[in-house]
Write a structure and sequence with these properties.
BirA Bifunctional Protein, domain 2; 2 domains; OB fold (Dihydrolipoamide Acetyltransferase, E2P); alpha+beta; elongated; 452 residues
């Protein structure tokens, strides 16, 4: 039976009692001189050392084939080595050579520059950095599902193919087929958000969330944008702005606590990946979970920015302007480099579905800003007045015929609803200290590039 390296390190004493065990993996280190091999199978960040004894090893010709990144299966006796750095190693081995790596393999070095690795998305998990990062992505995703399950939310699917542009920004991917006759009766797009459909489902289920890919044809080349990304979008009825911001704060802290409790090895690996530029990730995360996220409205944020407007590139600070990345980062710095909720933005800056405040100038919404990341979450109370909602959609330039089903919700016992959207990759950026969002997803989609 094949045993994972993770299981070996979790149960070394029990497995050492067996006559032989079998493991498989990829070669991470191979010393012809010292006669040992280290392999990794992806189940853990720790490699397993394979010791080759010249006295009882009869596969000398096979050793000539083994090189860095080749794949092997190995049978041997697990021996405890408590006096050494590793707790155990495999001896008296029989090696089954599976496949070699050609000399042209581009990722030969241990700590190859990330800029180079980005050119080979299909090979990235063979490096320790991306093996670590994608293990973190898995744990973050799991903890999000766990959180909403504990909070009584239902996980619901929302469509990827749609006729709606939820945000009304026009940055959608259109879908066509090779057939002369259209497959659908109207133009179709890839979804930019599952929020509208989640809102409909919440009208019967009460509390729902969707966790799915979204697509935006935004021709951005920054380190913070992707054309394809994953969104977490909870929706709950009979909720106000205070309740939905509390839920967002609670969720983020839950996820961070989960990672601190379960992925300390991964965090330490990333902290020390670059010996010359070590990061302080763990302490920063611990500070986040014990802090109280500041809450200010948009008008107060503008007042704070005006006091330091000479420090900004976009320095024409006035009410009604859209906050730029530099403004968002400064606001976090202003509050001791902590997360901050900005609420009640001008209606003209936000989507049509957000509920008007009594002042008729602002809407009941929020953005959660995070240090170095900027906007992490955006949410709002949804407009519950049929006529106001339809008029706001019309002013945005949306095809209201495509949204008739959404307006109809207000006609049939609509319960006031609120929700938010979290960009998964931006959360991964913050938790891992990653500087480029393209590193947080296996096969990043961005403007002008599509190789996979």
């Amino acid at each position: 039976m094949l045993i994972s390296i993770r299981d070996i390190y979790q149960n070394p004493e029990e497995l050492s009692k067996l006559e032989k065990i079998k493991v498989s993996g990829w070669v991470k280190t191979f010393s012809h001189k010292k006669k040992f091999i280290k392999i990794n199978d992806g189940s853990t960040l720790d490699d397993l050392q394979i010791v080759i004894s010249q006295n009882n090893f009869f596969q000398a010709d096979l050793l000539k084939k083994i090189n860095f990144a080749s794949s092997l299966s190995v049978k041997g006796k697990l021996v405890l080595t408590s006096e050494r750095e590793q707790p155990c190693e495999l001896k008296e081995v029989e090696i089954e050579f599976v496949n070699s790596a050609e000399e042209s393999y581009p990722l030969q070095k241990q700590n190859i520059p990330l800029k180079t690795v980005r050119d080979y998305p299909h090979l990235r998990t063979k490096t320790y950095y991306f093996l670590t990062l994608f293990r973190l992505r898995h744990s973050i995703s799991k903890s999000i599902h766990d959180f909403f399950h504990q909070q009584g939310f239902y996980y619901v699917p929302t469509p990827i193919i749609t006729s709606n542009d939820t945000e009304g920004a026009g940055e959608t991917f259109n879908i066509t087929t090779d057939e002369e006759e259209p497959f659908f009766s109207k133009p179709v797009k890839l979804t930019v958000s599952g929020q509208l459909q989640a809102e409909a489902l919440a009208q019967g289920l009460g509390k729902v969330y969707t966790f799915s890919p979204c697509f935006r044809a935004e021709k951005s080349h920054t380190t913070r944008h992707l054309a394809e990304f994953w969104m977490v979008e909870p929706e709950m009825v009979f909720a106000d702005l205070g309740e939905i911001t509390d839920l967002a704060e609670k969720m983020v802290k839950y996820v961070i606590n989960y990672i601190l409790d379960n992925n300390g090895t991964e965090l330490k690996k990333i902290e020390n990946y670059d010996e010359e530029n070590k990061k302080e990730i763990i302490n920063e995360l611990k500070n986040i979970v014990i802090s109280e996220f500041e809450r200010i409205d948009y008008t107060r944020a503008i007042e704070i920015l005006k006091e330091k407007k000479e420090n900004f590139v976009f320095n024409d600070i006035k009410w009604g302007m859209d906050l730029q990345s530099e403004h968002e980062k400064y606001l976090c710095q202003h509050f001791d480099n902590s997360p901050i909720f900005i609420t009640d933005y001008p209606a003209g800056l936000k989507a049509f579905y957000m509920k008007n405040n009594p002042d008729e100038k602002t809407v009941a919404c929020f953005d959660l800003l995070f240090p170095e990341i900027g906007e992490l979450i955006g949410g709002s109370v949804r407009e519950d007045n049929y006529n106001i909602l339809q008029e706001k959609a019309r002013k945005t330039g949306l095809d209201i015929n495509n949204l008739s089903w959404y307006f109809d919700l207000r006609k049939y016992g609509y319960a006031p609803s609120a929700g938010f959207g979290l960009g998964l990759e931006r959360l991964i950026m913050f938790i891992s200290g990653t500087e480029n969002i393209r590193d947080t997803i296996a096969f990043p989609r961005l403007h002008s590039k599509l190789s996979y």
